[in-house]
Amino acid sequence: MGPRILLTRHGQTAWNALGRLQGHTNIELDDIGREQARALGTKLAGERVRAVWASDLSRARQTAEIVAGALGIVNVHTEPLLRERQFGVFEGLTRDQCASQYPDAWAQWLSLTAAPPGGESRESAVARMKDALTNIFDSLEHDAGVAVAISHGGVMRLWLSEVLAGPVPLVANGAICVVERDSRGFHATAPSDR
């Protein structure tokens, strides 16, 4: 078996609990999120994890540091391309607030026809995630081991929708999908808590 990436969503934040869209806003884990990260580290103990990577946003970085500590891995690699999608004017708002404050932009967002004002397009987010995973796979090229990559629900969902050629439900905090790569490209499992 060749190298694999366990692509994982960070633990919960206070904004997750309130249903606020975070995007690039730098929010830290809450107590539940830290516990989810510890549970993730325990769950991954049986894998042959050689490296832990994370988005540069605090919630992903903190999750990665807790997981790495549980696995006895000293260094966490930062990959800014694993960052969440930029949600523009929607950042910090709940879905209901987006619908009431920006009804036209929200309707276009829901119909998948446009990015929010000041936000990142679907195409850009998917391409960025592909580049991030390519970088991680390239670092594992001569190693049959496993890397953990801590990312974010929105960008993971977009990328997985393309790879799995269909809709993907909301990605839960701490959910994992297994990513492999061959000459035909990327292959992934749907996110689960394994």
Report a brief summary of the structure:
The protein has 194 residues and is an alpha/beta fold.
Backbone CA Rg: 16 Å
Count every beta strand, where a strand is a DSSP E run of 2 or more residues: 6
Count of alpha/pi helices: 7
The overall pLDDT average reads: 94
The percent range for helix content is 25-40%
- What is the CATH level 1 assignment of the largest domain? Alpha Beta
Number of domains: 2
So what's the oligomer here?
Answer: single chain
CATH arch. level architecture of the largest domain: 3-Layer(aba) Sandwich
Task: Briefly note the structural class of the backbone.
Answer: alpha/beta
Topology order in helix (H) and strand (E) letters:
EHHEHEHHHEHEE
Shape: globular
Might you state the CATH topology name of the largest domain? Rossmann fold
What is the CA–CA distance across the termini?
19 Å
Strand count, sense and closure of the main sheet? 6 strands, mixed
CATH homologous superfamily grouping of the largest domain: Phosphoglycerate mutase-like
Please, could you describe this protein's structure?
With 194 residues, the protein is α/β, with parallel strands linked by helices. Helices cover 39% and strands 16% of the residues. The chain contains seven helices and six strands, in the order E-H-H-E-H-E-H-H-H-E-H-E-E. The protein has helices at 14-18, 31-43, 58-71, 95-101, 103-110, 122-139, 153-163; strands at 4-9, 49-54, 76-78, 146-151, 176-182, 185-188. The chain starts with a strand and ends in a 6-residue tail after the last strand. The mean pLDDT is 94.
